[in-house]
Specification:
118 residues, mainly alpha, 4 helices, globular
């Protein structure tokens, strides 16, 4: 049981390391290419998707079973931590419901695809 928890933590940490790297790339692109707000929003959704996919892939690879469920779990954990961090930093949710649902979908689908690939 303890080993499984460690695997989950490692996969979520890897997701956030990937997020950090992807967000740095987006920031560089914003600086160099003068991206519009809409383009940045799309890029952030892609970051959510790719980061959750990486976490789902790593978790399902390390668990070796129930890949779809492991991927979905990694994506949902990524989303929950992301939402909680946003609440702590902003003291409220600054997005409308549609943006939150899009982020949840990106994290869930990314995690599932990563889990299946693992």
């Amino acid at each position: 049981m303890k080993d499984n928890a460690i695997r989950v933590v490692k996969s979520v940490v890897a997701s956030y390391v990937a997020s950090f790297i992807f967000i740095l790339i987006i920031a560089l692109m914003m600086y160099r290419l003068k991206l519009s707000e809409n383009q940045v929003r799309i890029g952030i959704m892609a970051v959510y998707f790719l980061s959750a996919a990486i976490g789902g892939f790593l978790l399902s690879k390390s668990m070796g079973k129930r890949r779809l469920i492991m991927g979905l779990s990694a994506g949902l954990i990524y989303f929950i931590i992301l939402t909680l961090m946003s609440l702590v930093i902003n003291k409220s949710i600054n997005q409308d419901a549609s943006e939150i649902i899009k982020a949840l979908a990106a994290c869930s689908i990314g995690g599932i695809i990563g889990g299946i690939a693992g």
